[in-house]
Design goal:
heteropentamer, A mainly alpha, B mainly alpha, C mainly alpha, D mainly alpha, E mainly alpha, A: 70% helix, globular, E: mainly alpha, Methane Monooxygenase Hydroxylase, Chain G, domain 1, 4 helices, elongated
Chain lengths: 321, 476, 517, 102, 115
């Protein structure tokens, strides 16, 4: 094993460990923040500031009954939560945290990310369908519809970035933002991507597939124990993923004033968005399902197309003049 | 792409624009008449535009397309056929479907696909054209949603067409893997410079033929034909029988001429077997049918067999015979299905032979026109079908394909039997009073005039084919 | 141009008759009679012109039709054709007249078909382009099919099918041969044409010629018909309406015979000589078999139909005897058989109109109630058995003389066949007109009406005329037959072409370059 | 990519194609038939990519995109038809969809 | 993780363990229910538009080389997309859930009749 391989392995496991450690932490963070904004107590019993609640939750999940409903399609039932985590984790492979800190620098990084996030739809569909439960099924249908719809706009909204960079490689994209973050010329794209990103992670306010008040818990009604845990963790890693993507694509990735190291900038920006996500949860009501879908198809899609056309035109015009 | 390329592609652009215009029109307000008018006018306009080309027009739009006389002729044929189909669709759909507007969009798109096919000289354009055609056809076939057989026919066609597309594609990819070329000319060049064709290439060509055979509905890939013919709305059936198959034939002619496929005995043998099998199976199975659409389906199988005789003759003679046969077959088939469409009522198509009992006495002109169409299919003089069959036999004998010609003759006689049977039913004196609730007679005027024009063409080609012959001679 | 007019009059007459049938049932009849009468008049006038030509060709017309294939609209008329078209129009008028009271269903369409059949037949007799020949050959089938299929008797559908498919199948074989000949000639001379005269001298190897000839032969022997291809004939003749039977027996069969003389002999002289013994044997078999079968029939029309088979055997025998006299006999046979058999069918039809049956066993003793009809029947029955003084005698006699020099055994057997003919002819007379009356209502059996007499009388006159003075007919056909046999058949010399697309001409008198006997 | 790998990919495509073919022939559920056909199409697409890689041309990939598009269109129409059939027949057994005979 | 949980997890069996959880209410009927075909429609829309984005992707990556010419092509393509979108919109494929206006209209009509 040479140095390159070792450092590569280190990065890989570093990223993996980081994610798996941070994700549960996010749960605590979210609850604390929600408590803060909504003026109530968050977790505060276990450990200082209730920090150990994460550990307690995890332990609890491990010791819960590994319940597979007898009426469920067993293989698929087990497979579904695994898919969530795997796809989300795989997406992180292409994210450049800082120069040199990337698991795999693919020249089609962006496409890989899109592909992986599409895969997420499978877990919802399979999970809901295999549960053999009406609510679960409905939730999964809704979720899938929402996911694939927003998938379209997500891809389209990124095209502006691709146009400006001329590459699908995320490193190239970050480097293209050395002087100007894309959030400025691509503000529309940024907004659409953000909305689509929230929908993709089915976070509040777009948590239609789960919608406790309507569907109990949506597609994962029948899940419990660690399998539920996986869905849960997957969701939080998803938040991180979207936050990192926004950072990479629109906020110049690791670039920032040089008093902090690049990785730090990256993490700051990412957490900024994570806070934003939690803030959304704290402040916005859930739209109706049909409103959500219509909003996507009737407003976001035309907007993203418009964004594409205008961006292309302007770039070309600037090139020729 | 430059201006002359665009000029050469204008017919296709007009078609596409017509489709988009229809989309817009539907978005604004659904109106059958408006859509119908747009469709018909654009088809007519397109055809008129087409006549502005010189017959010796030759424009290579590299690497995909070539607009030459043969292509222009075939596009013209497709446009006119589509026009006729559209004309006969009005009455047919007016009384059946609530949402009849999209039909015309699909029809135009299907025609567009066929047009691309006949001018393609590259696998990509071939495939694109074919798929535009096929995908439109799936929906067209299943257009009458409330009828059970419609869906069944649609899904059958879909699965088999996709199946054959897979064969076609795999064959293409094998050829591409061996030659590194996807344009017909490049493949032809490869073949001329290679002594032994690699096995994988042969396999590729074989799969290509299988795929094409499915679309053409030659035996043994014919299973879909009768069901689809029966299940599809009658105008669509007419479209499948003509444009869909004709486009494929035109493409095959172009492809085989480009790669000079006639010099390979294995291919000619394969096609000979396909041809003979199609003739016999088609005709023999047609004998025991009682459903007219199925009869015509089986007869179309055998007609493709006849066409392959001309196709196999190769050379310009073969190409001309094929083209002329296509023209005659188009006219005849359109006429026949047009009549079925006009006789159909709201609930079902007039597809049983019994529906035609005594037709000669109920609607003499219709019956005479129908008889003419059937006789043309049988290849009886005074009709276009006769000259076409004569041409095919001439081409076959000219290239010493005695076995094929002999089979053709035998099959003509078998075919005659069931064509005559239908005619016999029509002049059966037992009158059958049909109590069909009919629409406003004006609705039928368009269809009737169309059929009359077709019948006139049929006789005109049968009596004085010289004009068409020299036209075909010029374009090939 | 006259030749074209002959066909066009019939075609347009047919269309006019078809449409007028919707207005009035009498109109189509008159239109048909008029159209055919015009043609008959023209052809008789042509026959009356003295032929001063050295060439057998009296008239010709050549228009470009499908030049891409070397197909022209080429009509020509010689003595044989002239005889045949006169017969066609003569029987055509009779056919219209006989249907006057018989056909009430869709009169217009009936006459349309009738005239189109005649047009097809006329075309066959006139055309000098092989493609055009095939074209007309097929054109006459469809209307004939309708005639049988719509207005025929009980079993009409079956008969019509059988007729159509037999003739169509054999016709397609002929088409193959025609095209093969076209290519053989084209490859040899690089001149691709369907012109009869150009194809005449085509040189080809024996094998090819053999096959090509068989194709032609197939069409003609089925049409003629020759045993064993005759099975369509009894059905078709029996089931057809009277006019249909008349045209079938009188004209359609003659197209087969005409084809043998016009195409087989000149195009394939050596091959015809080679198969002559077989062909003659088939002919003779036909004579005997037809006669025997005829004797055994109880259905009157079927009986007459089989007698046709027998008579057509003579044609086969005569043609392949390959002598001029025999051919003269054949031409006479074609005419006289057309008239006599036609007349017999008419009588059968008249009887059927009266007693609604064709079963001989249910008839008998009609002589008393319908003497005129009986006498006329007697005349034609005698004609059929070859009584001297009637046309058929001349025909059969010439045929037998002609074939005697070619093949004595065959001739002998053929002569025996005549004896059988006597048997069945007399049987008709005996069963139907003599003996005991079997039906109750025979008393009320009406004799021939004036119209019916008017129809049958010309037939009687012609058959007697041909029996006692056949010379004009023989003279007309002579020249063409001689040339046919001597392989001196040549195209009429064409004058300077004025307009290549449209040239019509009558052959100018006395061409020096043409050989003359 | 060198020719050997391209050949292997081609081989894989061939295997996939055959699997799809067999599956179309033995499956009776229409949806599975559709899926099998899709497998065949994708096998062809894979073969194109392999072939394109072998010659170092992008044409193979272009073709794959087209195949993808067409497959998508086909699936859309196919699903719609299957829905319709399910509404009418309450089954997706392809043997049930044989109202037409002859 | 799943494996660990399987080993550590407790087991129990109770009366309602074997029924689907529907908020405590006893479930009726199978979960294989028919639901709005709108979902299929979404699937198809997705298939159409997602595939179209593939073309946009490939254009975007080669955007600079293609220049105005490619841009024009893509604009035409986008116009097609938009036309299709408008069509879908008008055809009601984008209307998820019931349309309040329509219901109101229908209700008014109904009440008007009753009066």
């Amino acid at each position: 094993m040479d140095d390159a391989t070792i450092s590569h392995l280190l990065i890989t496991f570093g990223v993996l460990a980081g994610l798996l450690l941070v994700a549960p932490g996010l749960i605590w963070l979210e609850r604390r923040l929600l408590a803060l904004w909504q003026d109530r107590y968050g977790p505060n019993r276990a450990g200082p500031f209730g920090l150990l609640v994460v550990l307690a939750d995890t332990l609890k999940l491990f010791f819960k009954e590994d319940w597979i409903p007898p009426f469920a399609d067993k293989k698929v039932f087990v497979l579904a939560p695994a898919i969530v985590v795997i796809t989300v984790l795989l997406s992180f492979v292409v994210i450049p945290f800082a120069p040199g800190i990337i698991v795999a620098d693919m020249n089609i990084g962006l496409l890989f990310f899109l592909a992986m996030s599409s895969m997420g739809a499978y877990s919802i569909i399979l999970g809901g369908w295999s549960s053999n439960n009406k609510y679960a099924l409905l939730g999964s249908m809704r979720g899938a519809a929402q996911l694939i719809s927003y998938e379209v706009f997500m891809g389209l909204s990124l095209m502006g970035v691709v146009l400006m960079t001329g590459s699908f490689s995320l490193i190239d994209i970050v480097e293209a933002q050395r002087y100007q973050w894309f959030i400025v010329p691509q503000f529309l794209g940024f907004v659409i991507f953000l909305i689509a990103g929230i929908a993709e992670t089915h976070r509040l306010p777009f948590d239609i597939p789960e919608a406790e008040s309507e569907l109990i818990a949506g597609f994962h009604s029948e899940y419990s124990g660690m399998k539920f845990g996986l869905f849960f963790v997957g969701e939080y890693i998803g938040i991180m993923l979207i936050s990192s993507m926004v950072t990479v694509l629109f906020l110049g990735g690791w670039y920032g004033p040089s008093f902090l190291p690049p990785l730090a900038w990256f993490i700051i920006k990412m957490f900024g968005f994570i806070f934003f996500f939690i803030l959304l949860r704290a402040s916005l009501p859930r739209p109706r399902y049909d409103q959500l879908m219509e909003f996507g198809w009737k407003i976001l899609l035309p907007l993203s197309l418009l964004n594409l056309v205008v961006t292309g035109g302007i770039i070309l015009w600037m090139n020729t003049h | 792409m430059n201006r002359s390329d665009l000029y050469s592609l204008t017919p296709l652009l007009i078609l596409s624009s017509a489709a988009i215009l229809n989309f817009f029109s539907i978005s604004i307000k659904r109106n059958h008449k408006v859509i119908f008018a747009i469709t018909v006018l654009s088809l007519i306009g397109d055809f008129i535009f087409l006549t502005s080309y010189s017959l010796y027009h030759q424009q290579h739009i590299d690497p995909l397309l070539v607009v030459d006389g043969f292509g222009i002729f075939n596009i013209g044929l497709i446009l006119l056929t589509t026009l006729v189909v559209a004309l006969m669709s009005y009455a047919y759909f007016e009384q059946r479907e609530e949402r009849k507007e999209e039909y015309y969009i699909l029809l135009i798109l299907a025609a567009l696909g066929a047009c691309i096919m006949v001018i393609s000289k590259h696998f990509v354009s071939f495939f694109l054209g074919l798929e535009v055609l096929s995908v439109s056809l799936y929906s067209l076939i299943a257009y009458l949603r409330t009828r059970e057989r419609s869906d069944e026919a649609g899904i059958k066609y879909l699965i088999l067409a996709a199946f054959s597309s897979a064969f076609l594609l795999f064959g293409m990819s094998l050829i591409y893997a061996t030659t590194g070329k996807m344009d017909f000319g490049g493949i032809g060049y490869y073949l001329t410079t290679t002594q032994d064709i690699p096995l994988i290439m042969m396999a590729g060509l074989g799969m290509l033929i299988v795929g094409a055979g499915f679309k053409l509905g030659v035996v043994p890939f014919h299973m879909w034909t009768p069901d689809v013919y029966e299940g599809a709305p009658t105008p669509v059936t007419a479209f499948i029988a003509t444009v869909s198959k004709g486009g494929m034939i035109a493409l095959l002619v172009r492809f085989f001429n480009a790669i000079n496929g006639y010099q390979y005995e294995s291919f000619t043998n394969l096609f000979t077997v396909l041809s003979i099998a199609s003739m016999f199976v088609g005709n023999i199975l047609a004998l025991r049918q009682t459903n007219l659409k199925r009869i015509l389906a089986y007869s179309s199988i055998s007609h493709i067999g006849y066409l392959l005789v001309a196709f196999l003759s190769g050379g310009s003679m073969g190409a001309q015979a094929t083209t002329f046969y296509l023209v005659a077959y188009f006219i005849t088939t359109l006429g026949a299905f047009g009549i079925i469409a006009t006789l159909s009522d709201q609930h079902r198509d007039a597809e049983l032979i019994d529906d035609y009992r005594g037709l000669l006495w109920r609607r003499p002109l219709t019956a005479v026109a129908f008889s003419a169409m059937l006789l043309s299919l049988a290849g009886i003089p005074l009709t276009a079908g006769f000259i076409a069959k004569f041409y095919v036999i001439t081409a076959g004998i000219g290239t010493q394909h005695w076995l094929l010609v002999f089979c053709l003759v035998v099959n003509s006689v078998i075919g005659l039997y069931y064509y005559i049977k239908i005619i016999a039913v029509m002049f059966d004196q037992k009158l059958q009073i049909k109590s069909a609730k009919e629409l406003h007679p004006l609705v039928y005027v368009i269809s009737s005039v169309t059929i009359a024009v077709l019948a006139v063409f049929l006789f005109w080609l049968g009596v004085s084919p010289e004009g068409m012959l020299s036209l075909i001679d010029d374009v090939i | 141009m006259i030749l074209m007019i002959l066909i066009l009059v019939l075609l347009f007459g047919g269309i006019a008759a078809g449409f007028s049938g919707r207005m009035n049932t009498m109109l189509p009849r008159w239109i048909s009679v008029g159209a055919i009468a015009i043609n008959l008049f023209i052809s008789l006038w042509m026959a009356a012109q003295p032929n001063t030509n050295s060439s057998p060709w009296l008239l010709q017309l050549k228009l470009n039709w499908i030049p891409s294939f070397g197909i022209s609209f080429h009509l020509a008329l010689d003595g044989i054709s002239l005889l045949m078209i006169i017969l066609t129009f003569f029987l055509g008028i009779i056919a219209v007249a006989i249907s006057w009271n018989e056909i009430h269903f869709r009169v217009g369409f009936f006459h349309f078909n009738l005239l189109w059949v005649l047009a097809g037949i006329t075309g066959v007799f006139l055309t000098m382009d092989l493609f055009l020949f095939y074209f007309f050959w097929e054109v006459m089938l469809i209307p004939m099919y309708f005639l049988i299929g719509i207005w025929g008797h009980e079993n009409r559908q079956y008969a019509a099918y059988k007729f159509f498919i037999f003739t169509q199948a054999s016709g397609l074989l002929m088409l193959m041969s025609i095209i093969a000949l076209y290519f053989v000639h084209g490859q040899a001379t690089d001149q691709y044409t369907f012109n009869y005269f150009d194809l005449l001298g085509t040189s080809m190897n024996k094998q090819t010629a053999q096959w090509i000839m068989l194709g032609f032969l197939a069409a003609f022997v089925v049409k003629l018909p020759v045993i064993p291809f005759h099975t369509w004939l009894p059905d078709a003749h029996t089931e057809a309406p009277t006019a249909g039977s008349l045209i079938l027996a009188g004209l359609l069969l003659k197209t087969g015979a005409y084809g043998l003389i016009r195409f087989i002999l000149p195009l394939f002289p050596e091959q015809s000589a080679a198969i002559a013994p077989v062909a003659m044997a088939l002919g003779v078999t036909g004579i005997v078999y037809g006669a025997v079968q005829a004797y055994g029939q109880t259905d009157l029309k079927r009986l007459i139909a089989y007698s046709s088979v027998s008579h057509m055997g003579f044609v086969m025998l005569g043609v392949f005897a390959l002598t001029e006299i025999a051919l003269q006999g054949v031409v006479m046979q074609m005419i006289t058989h057309g008239i006599s058999t036609g007349a017999l069918f008419i009588i059968a039809g008249l009887l059927y109109e009266r007693i609604r049956t064709r079963d001989v066993t249910q008839m008998g003793g009609f002589w008393k109630s319908i003497p005129v009809a009986s006498v006329i029947t007697l005349i034609f029955a005698m004609a059929s058995l070859g009584l001297p003084g009637l046309g058929n005698f001349v025909a059969e006699f010439l045929t037998l003389i002609g074939s005697w020099s070619a093949n004595k055994t065959m001739t002998l057997i053929a002569t025996i066949g005549i004896v059988f003919a006597t048997a069945y002819s007399l049987r008709i007379m005996q069963k139907v007109f003599l003996g005991k009356s079997r039906l109750e209502h025979h008393q009320s059996l009406a004799d021939l009406t004036a119209r019916e007499r008017l129809i049958l009388l010309p037939l009687v006159i012609v058959i007697i005329l041909l029996g006692v003075h056949p010379q004009p007919a023989i003279d007309l056909a002579k020249d063409g037959l001689q040339k046919t046999l001597n392989r001196e058949f040549q195209a009429p010399k064409e004058p300077k072409i004025i307009n290549p697309n449209y040239q019509t001409l009558t052959v100018p008198a006395t061409e020096k370059g043409v050989h003359h006997e | 990519m060198n020719a050997a790998i391209a050949d292997q990919a081609l081989m894989l495509a061939g295997i996939l194609f055959v699997l799809g073919l067999i599956s179309v022939l033995i499956r009776r559920n229409i949806i599975f038939m559709l899926i099998s056909v899709e497998i065949m199409l994708n096998a062809a697409g894979l073969a194109f990519i392999a072939a394109g890689a072998r010659w170092g041309q992008p044409d193979g990939q272009v073709m794959f995109v087209f195949i993808l598009t067409m497959a998508a269109a086909e699936v859309s129409v196919g699903l719609a038809l299957i829905l319709q059939i399910y509404h009418q027949l309450k089954t997706l057994d392809s043997d049930a969809a044989d109202k037409m005979h002859g | 993780m799943l494996g660990v949980s399987y080993i550590l997890g407790q087991r129990h069996k109770e009366r309602a363990s074997h029924e689907p959880y529907e908020g405590g209410i006893l479930s009726t009927g199978s979960a294989r229910i028919r639901f709005s075909s709108q979902f299929y429609l979404v699937a198809m829309l997705f298939v159409i538009f997602d595939v179209e984005t593939i073309f946009l992707f490939s254009w975007a990556i080669a955007f600079k080389e293609l220049g105005w010419y490619g841009y024009a092509g893509m604009v035409v393509f986008l116009i097609l997309l938009v036309v299709v979108l408008i069509y879908e919109w008008r055809a009601g494929a984008l209307d998820f859930g019931p349309d309040g206006q329509k219901i109101l209209k229908a209700y008014k009509k109904l009440t008007a009749k009753q009066k």
